[in-house]
Amino acid sequence: MIKAIRIHETGGPEVLRYEDVEVGAPGPGAALIRHTAIGLNFIDTYFRSGLYPAPNGLPFIPGNEGAGIVVSVGEGVSHVAPGDRVAYVGPLGAYAEERLVPADRLVRLPEGIDDRTAAGMMLKGMTARYLLRKTFVVGPETTLLFHAAAGGVGLIAGQWAAHLGATVIGTVGSDDKAELARAHGYTHVINYAREDFVARVKEITGGRGCDVVYDSVGRDTYPGSLDCLRPQGLWVSFGQSSGPITDFNLALLGQKGSLFATRPTLFSYIAQRSDLEATAADLFDVVGRGIVRIGVNQDYALADAARAHADLEGRRTTGTTVLLPG
């Protein structure tokens, strides 16, 4: 028996139960791993609350990323072996001391990246990679707006976009978070608690607007995000930390300058093994060379996952947070 967090009914952080579970041997194509660290992400709260339904129903173990050691592998697995240090973004089930993972979702960790960093950067870092290199190809001519600049994805994206030569504008909710964002690549930082972010973007860009807006906030930044774009600019809605957008009007895209809009997910961008490997390799490269620094700013015991969720939703965290088993 091992310890894991399970959800028997959806709701607030209080539904996260720390309990004993059985883990079997890996079948064909699978691996058993022992977690050393587990990533905490906002998407975890969507599954916990029921906003996103768990694919296999209730009860379920939440969590999409982690790092650890391969304990054993099933038939047909050759790219990882017992004893390998690995990390993954994969199906639900990360909030556990040990788990079974489809082996094709595992990537081996380079020597220079420790387990806590790996566990906290896989989902956020690979998200930043597809946003900046695939959804919209950012370069020296790009002016972009990134909401929640002091969040986990935001701090990674700010550094990476600055390295690519972009003009990087970010929004935050406090002066402390503004300072953090500036230290992570943001050319301009807007404190939306006391500034109109639309007016400030217009001022910063001389009325032109941004080429792309990355929006993980949702309800509170819509439709303002659209007003920050230049004609034919791209609005990338990749999260909804303030709540879902329930009144999206497609006609607004035409009225506001023939805008483009997309709702991407990381899992579409890494569905093929080759895409996963390329995405992870790019992430390991920029982290390994010090271009992107991963700040694990909070850690909690796995048993304290409910407190971690409450702090995350209460915007009391910055950067990356991990859960530690044992």
Automatic annotation (TrEMBL):
InterPro entries: ADH-like_C, ADH-like_N, ER, GroES-like_sf, NAD(P)-bd_dom_sf, QOR-like
Entry EC no(s): 1.6.5.5
SMART domains on file: PKS_ER (SM00829)
Keyword Oxidoreductase attached: yes
Any one GO CC term of the record: cytosol
EC primary class: oxidoreductase
Matches recorded under Pfam families: ADH_N, ADH_zinc_N
GO terms, molecular function: mRNA 3'-UTR AU-rich region binding; NADPH binding; quinone reductase (NADPH) activity
The entry's keywords: Oxidoreductase
PANTHER family the UniProt entry points to: QUINONE OXIDOREDUCTASE PIG3-RELATED, QUINONE OXIDOREDUCTASE-RELATED
Protein name (database record): NADPH:quinone reductase
